[in-house]
Structures are given as structure tokens and as C-alpha cells.
């Protein structure tokens, strides 16, 4: 704590007032200077800093172009910023719908197609599944579960069946399995996989979430993912 002390010495004639500088050696941070005054000591801060000890940044860390998506508001912090999201969105930059799951860096949701007449799960082809995901927005599609991090997040989703489709499909021209972004599927294949003659890729929690090829006509869930624009 910065203090200013007045010391009084009595002489025969009257009281003389002496002052003692009580500025500590270096109480001010970030290049600030300690200044003594009759009202007490204080820190004179260098440009870009503020606070009692010049400990706070006075610079607005929000970029000139708002980094927050979907109507989010940038909130200035100390050397960083955060996004305040509308109620219908979540995520570091408000990129994820609030009714999706964001357990890490991937925004995911499990969908199960149901019949509008019977209310029972039904089989859908890959294009129907893609359209169902795209119904949430132009930047939503079937999920690319491309690495261990994405797979770990997918394991946290609440499933309705033991078969879950992802975005990977077989490229007839390249003769390889590819994700929706055209990168090769080189991760998490089950024993003996992949096999040809089937156009879809899925995983089963009961089989340790490893990928296997599927003929696209088996009732199951599929995973939608929000991709950054």
C-alpha cells in the first residue's frame, strides 16, 4: 500500500513540518512511476496501462472486425477477449447452436430419422442425411470424425442406436475413402476394414467406436457438424 507520512518536530520557536518520501522502491508495474504528493502516493502509468499499480491493460483487445459469429458481442479482457453469445448459440466465438453438443472444439449433434406417420426410426440415404444436417444452416453437414479428439467428443453424444453414420464415402474415381472435405480416411478403421462394395461409413459404440463400411440401408443415427465459415 502506498503511503505519505508527515513527521513533526517541535523546536523552541514553533512546529516545523518535514516530509518523508514513503514511495516503495518499485510499487508500480509495467513501467509506471511512483509519485509522492500531499494527498498520498500514486502510480503514474505508462501508455496502455491503468489501475492502482498499473496492473491493468488499457488497450481494447477486441479486433476491429468482430470475431464473434451469429450476433455475438466481443468482450474485452486483460490481454485477450471473449464472446458473449445470444441464447441460441454457444462456443468460443458463438459458432455452435445451443441445441448441439460442444464438449471440445467440435460442434456436433446426433440425428435419428423418424417416420412422420409411424414415429419409428427409418432408413435414409446419404443425401437425405446430408440434407437433414444442412437444414440447420449452410455451414452444417455430416461430421468429419478425423482424429482422436473428434472421436472422443463423439463418444460423449447421447445415442439412440448402436449404429452411427459419419460423412465418409468411397470415391470411385480415386479408389479411396474420403471425408466430406475430400481428405482421406486414414484413422480408426476396424479390423479388416475398409471393404469395397459399400458406400457409407459408420461406427458402433458396442465395437469400440471403430469405423466400418456400411451399405447405407441400415437404420441408424448420423452425426451433424457445424463447420466454421
TrEMBL record:
<dbReference type="InterPro" id="IPR001881">
    <property type="entry name" value="EGF-like_Ca-bd_dom"/>
</dbReference>
<feature type="disulfide bond">
    <location>
        <begin position="45"/>
        <end position="54"/>
    </location>
</feature>
<feature type="disulfide bond">
    <location>
        <begin position="85"/>
        <end position="94"/>
    </location>
</feature>
<keyword id="KW-0245">EGF-like domain</keyword>
<feature type="domain" description="EGF-like">
    <location>
        <begin position="19"/>
        <end position="55"/>
    </location>
</feature>
<dbReference type="InterPro" id="IPR001304">
    <property type="entry name" value="C-type_lectin-like"/>
</dbReference>
<dbReference type="Pfam" id="PF00059">
    <property type="entry name" value="Lectin_C"/>
</dbReference>
<dbReference type="InterPro" id="IPR000152">
    <property type="entry name" value="EGF-type_Asp/Asn_hydroxyl_site"/>
</dbReference>
<dbReference type="GO" id="GO:0005509">
    <property type="term" value="F:calcium ion binding"/>
</dbReference>
<keyword id="KW-0325">Glycoprotein</keyword>
<dbReference type="InterPro" id="IPR016187">
    <property type="entry name" value="CTDL_fold"/>
</dbReference>
<feature type="domain" description="C-type lectin">
    <location>
        <begin position="129"/>
        <end position="225"/>
    </location>
</feature>
<feature type="domain" description="EGF-like">
    <location>
        <begin position="58"/>
        <end position="95"/>
    </location>
</feature>
<keyword id="KW-1015">Disulfide bond</keyword>
<dbReference type="InterPro" id="IPR016186">
    <property type="entry name" value="C-type_lectin-like/link_sf"/>
</dbReference>
<keyword id="KW-0732">Signal</keyword>
<dbReference type="Pfam" id="PF00008">
    <property type="entry name" value="EGF"/>
</dbReference>
<protein>
    <recommendedName>
        <fullName>C-type lectin</fullName>
    </recommendedName>
</protein>
<keyword id="KW-0677">Repeat</keyword>
<dbReference type="InterPro" id="IPR000742">
    <property type="entry name" value="EGF"/>
</dbReference>
Amino acid at each position: 500500500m502506498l503511503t505519505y507520512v508527515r513527521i513533526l518536530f517541535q523546536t523552541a520557536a514553533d512546529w516545523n513540518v518535514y516530509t518523508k518520501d514513503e514511495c516503495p522502491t518499485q510499487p508500480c508495474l509495467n513501467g509506471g512511476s511512483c509519485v509522492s504528493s500531499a494527498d498520498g502516493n500514486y502510480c503514474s502509468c505508462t501508455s496502455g496501462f491503468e489501475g492502482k499499480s498499473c496492473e491493468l491493460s488499457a488497450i481494447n483487445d477486441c479486433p476491429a472486425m468482430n470475431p464473434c459469429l451469429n450476433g455475438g458481442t466481443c468482450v474485452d479482457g486483460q490481454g485477450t477477449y471473449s464472446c458473449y453469445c445470444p441464447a441460441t448459440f454457444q462456443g468460443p466465438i458463438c459458432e455452435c447452436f445451443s441445441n448441439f453438443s460442444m464438449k471440445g472444439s467440435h460442434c456436433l449433434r446426433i440425428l435419428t430419422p423418424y417416420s412422420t406417420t409411424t414415429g419409428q426410426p427409418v432408413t435414409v440415404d446419404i443425401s437425405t442425411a446430408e440434407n437433414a444436417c444442412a437444414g440447420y444452416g449452410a455451414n452444417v453437414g455430416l461430421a468429419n470424425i478425423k482424429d482422436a479428439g473428434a472421436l472422443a467428443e463423439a463418444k460423449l453424444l447421447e445415442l439412440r442406436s448402436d449404429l452411427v453414420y459419419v460423412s465418409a464415402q468411397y470415391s470411385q474415381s480415386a479408389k479411396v475413402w474420403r471425408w466430406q472435405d475430400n481428405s482421406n480416411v486414414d484413422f480408426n478403421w476396424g479390423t479388416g476394414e475398409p471393404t469395397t462394395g459399400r458406400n457409407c461409413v459408420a461406427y458402433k459404440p458396442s465395437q469400440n467406436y471403430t469405423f466400418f463400411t456400411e451399405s447405407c440401408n441400415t437404420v441408424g443415427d448420423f452425426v451433424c457438424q457445424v463447420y466454421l465459415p
